[in-house]
Amino acid sequence: MALQWMILTYVVAAEAVIALLLTLPSPKLIKSRLVSLISLILQPAMFIVPFAAFQLLDIYWKNEHRLMCTGEICTAAERDRYEKSIYKAQRNAVLCAAACLLYWCVYRICRYYKEIQSLEEVEKRYKDQ
């Protein structure tokens, strides 16, 4: 069960590193190569959005069908286990949201950089005329 969360954690970490690399100042040549490489990776990396959505649905389903342990019938160990499962579900939901948000941020950063490059080319053509 924990394998999908490890995969999602590594993907979120990789997306965060990529976003950091894209936002750091660097020479134009390195930045353009980096953006073109990441743009090629973005299409196959789109799998993370439906994967995270499926994991969110799984969290929701488990939350709806979880046994409630709030009364005096529960022992202290059962109550601790219940609270721990709630905290894990919350953590995993934040992880899913972060995966989607970081993917969108990397996509928009690449797209903005490409738009800036095309505008610079248009400006250069107008200056040459």
From TrEMBL:
GO terms for molecular function: oxidoreductase activity. It is found in: Endoplasmic reticulum membrane; Membrane. One of its GO terms (biological process) is intracellular protein transport. It comes from the Eukaryota. Keywords: Endoplasmic reticulum, ER-Golgi transport, Membrane, Oxidoreductase, Protein transport, Transmembrane, Transmembrane helix, Transport. Residues 1-122 form the BAP29/BAP31 transmembrane domain. InterPro entries: Ald_DH_CS_CYS, BAP29/BAP31, BAP29/BAP31_N. Belongs to the BCAP29/BCAP31 family. This is Endoplasmic reticulum transmembrane protein. It comes from Davidia involucrata. The lineage of its organism: Eukaryota, Viridiplantae, Streptophyta, Embryophyta, Tracheophyta.
